[in-house]
Amino acid sequence: MNPLYNFLQSIDNFIWGPPLLLLLVGTGLYLTIRLGLIQIRHLPLALRYLFKGDKNSKAAGDVSSFAALCTALSATIGTGNIVGVATAIKLGGPGALFWMWLAALFGMATKYAECLLAVKYRETDANGQMIGGPMYYLEKGAGQKWLAKLFALFALGVACFGIGTFPQANAIVDAAELSFAVPKEVTVVVLTLLVATVTLGGVKSIASVASKVVPFMAIFYIVACLIVLVSQYSALPDAIALVISSAFTGHAATGGFVGAGIMLAIQSGIARGVFSNESGLGSAPMAAAAAKTDSCVKQGLISMTGTFFDTIIICTMTGLTLVVTNAWQSDYAGAAMTSYAFASGMNSSFIGPMMVTVGLMFFAFTTILGWNYYGERCVTYLFGVKAILPYKMFFLILIASGAFLKLDVIWLIADIVNGLMAIPNLIGLLLLRDVIISETRQFFQQLSATSTESDAELQTV
Q1: d(Cα 370, Cα 44) in Å, to the nearest integer?
Q2: DSSP labels for 3-16?
Q3: Is the pLDDT of residue 322 over 90?
């Protein structure tokens, strides 16, 4: 098995290496420039749309824009926000957090563009539900059906054998056993039943649960981080300064940290940032397509806030917690490092790690729900609605069995396929760049004209 594992590891390192990262960041940079810094200039408008909702109750779609965003965030906000950030800083030093911010900044433009296209090219399936995503804008917009099928196959592989099943089930089972002494068998039965109860109800059921659980789990985790940061407030300015300076100078070996140059900080920060917020991978558009909206631009704006919440807020909270407590210099790694940071920051070897454990379990559970839906959309595209129920049954079997399997090679394959998802999606974004720019320009021209008319009416009155 060793030669196979090493071979797959080299492929994985190549796919998640500079070529893909340059394509991801380069696409985001290009869209940022062409769209006139839309993620900065119009973030307040996007947040207003998110919380105000769409006044047009007759708009096409299955769930509210907020619920669609929560469905996407349920898959996006996951173990990467806890484990991924710790891994990035362990490899690249505090400077990796800065490059995560940069990847998120450009990633917001990418997320805007892909979710705009998802709504523009969506259609109704045989069950009367809205369906869309990279498969549809690659086929209907770019005329690249073979790339559409390729994307659907890659995404289905990730949903069944990667992010959506085994790692999340293992994380929940291990956390319950280690922290609460719950036997694996009990956790697996409860987890499988919960997943079945939610996912068999379709997108409305998943969105309903996500719109309640995602805000709760995000606020819970942010509050936990704030407790640590407030208790260490005197170290916060130095921590932020260290993040920025290390991004451009690297960081020498200190404590349990082995040292890292600038290139390692850049690569680890961008790779983990993209892995966490999934901007450019093409997953979030499948959830965005279900939103009740009469404007693809409006939904694109709402969807891009997902990257803002995931990386700029939640990953930043984790990163600063690791730096202010000096946990990044410890001998710990991954979730153990984050647990150590909370234990140190809260001065409690029980409460701090327990909050991390609860956060991990919530994050992992919602990731299962989100990726179950993404897999369903891919199955529908490839085989039609008749394949949905068999897919869901198969997915539940994977959840039930995943906790007992040692599948390092399969996880590695899933990581490879996860990276491969991005390639057809990014090609689609670049091929349809004129559509993205045209729709955006038209929307804001109409918005400006409406605002001017409203001002004129007020002056007349």
Answers
A1: 26
A2: HHHHHHHHHHHHHT
A3: yes
